[in-house]
Amino acid sequence: MEARCARTVRATSAKNSGRAVTLRRVTLQKRIPYTSHMSPVTPPSGTATDLRSGGGVRGFWQRISEGRELDELWSQFTADARASYGFYIKETDADEFERHRGVRRYLKIAKALFWAMVMKLTPARRVLLIIAIVLLFMSGVKFQIGKDIQFDLDLSLFSALLFLFLLALELADKVTMKRDLEIAREIQTWLVPSNAPEVAGGDIAFASRPQNSVAGDYYDAFYPSLSAQENGKLMLVIADVAGKSIPAALLMATLQASLRTIAGEGAPLGELVVRLNHYASAHSLDGRRFTTAVLAEYEPLTRSLVYVNAGHNPPILRRNGGAIEKLEAGGLPFGIQVDAAYETAAVDLKPGDALIFYTDGVVEAFDEKGREFGNERWIDAIRALPDWGASESLQFLMKRVDDFVGFTRQSDDITCLVFRSK
């Protein structure tokens, strides 16, 4: 999302025209890597949990592979390899590689990747790694003492043990961090609704999956107060904090707390977004941690939706007849400019209309060839949406994205909220 900062600001200043839209898949009828961490899914019989019984080579293989086919294992491996390469290569000077050709270029890349990996280790582990490499290269060296005494130096076993020890240390760190992140993920789920609220004349469904264990995406659908619930006023929110993982998740949590507090005070939507922007600007590190968002208030009695788009991917309103509208009115992302002005707008929903909120994970999702799903495919998927409920509509849309990306590893957080008017 950081890479899109300047583009987002320019697009928002021009009334948000031409902004990139992104979405990702949310439903899991079948298990594929792109969505394997969405919602909890019961493993099919014969995999994961019940593979631990059984003996012999077949039982061992089933336990190790969790029952996956070779083509799926290979797809996961290639996805992991691409992701790891991208992670390490960004630490290097890519322009330096372009100055060379042939074998010399690949040697430069190998050297750069090696040092990028080494420098990720602690100093003590770097020393162990260098010792292990030296021992490995010293293996097979022959020594001649006199005319009759000759022996070979084989230190490969010691080298392998050092590599294994390093692997164990790194794995322990990863498991510890993963456990902490899972706890953070559980806490984060408390901040967003697990079940959609009931709304007269409407149907809501939502889903979110972080790229890592925790996300910078935020979605909500709530009644600001008991009196609001009695009057039928419902608030719909979707937001995306710049960045990923822990930093973005912490800012997301503060945004949620601020929004709930201000909305609970009964502040009008126009005042609410101004106050949110003031808070975000005070904690955005000079605009580097900005937040895009769409906030909307829905009145079931009049079927009127008032909204503000703060630099976010414009929600798509698909009319019952198939016409497409984008909700673009608003202003800059929160945290960019403390005195930014925001424009509110209103649309009337009719029975059969579908309103889709989303973050920038779907249209920027890419397949194994590096092609983006793109705005056109996303609009086509929405235009082809059957006359179903919100949950089924969500599954339909996310499946279109899933079918495109296949086994490619997710590169950004994914969140989608669908509102169907009855």
Task: Quickly list its features.
disordered N terminus, six-stranded mixed beta sheet, Phosphatase 2c, domain 1, 422 residues, 12 helices, five-stranded antiparallel beta sheet, 42% helix, alpha+beta, elongated
What does this structure look like?
The chain has 422 residues and is an alpha+beta fold. The chain has a domain at 196-421: 4-Layer Sandwich (Phosphatase 2c, domain 1). The chain contains twelve helices and 13 strands. The protein has helices spanning 5-13, 56-65, 70-89, 94-98, 102-118, 123-138, 156-190, 226-231, 245-264, 269-282, 374-383, 390-405, and strands at residues 141-145, 149-153, 202-209, 217-222, 234-241, 291-299, 304-310, 316-318, 324-326, 330-331, 345-348, 354-358, 414-421. Strands 4, 5, 6, 7, 10 and 11 form a six-stranded mixed beta sheet that branches. It has a five-stranded antiparallel beta sheet with strand order 3-13-12-8-9, with helices on one face. Strand 1 and strand 2 (149-153) form a beta hairpin. 33% of the residues are buried.
Quick overview:
It contains 12 helices and 13 strands. The chain has 422 residues and is an alpha+beta fold. It has a domain at 196-421: Phosphatase 2c, domain 1.
Q: What is the structural class?
A: alpha+beta
| Strand segment tally | 13
Annotated CATH architecture of the domain at 196-421: 4-Layer Sandwich
Strand percentage: 15-25%
Please state the average pLDDT score: 80
CATH class division of the domain at 196-421: Alpha Beta
Shape: elongated
Gyration radius, rounded: 26 Å
Report the uncertain regions. Answer: 2-53
By CATH, the superfamily of the domain at 196-421 comes out as: PPM-type phosphatase domain
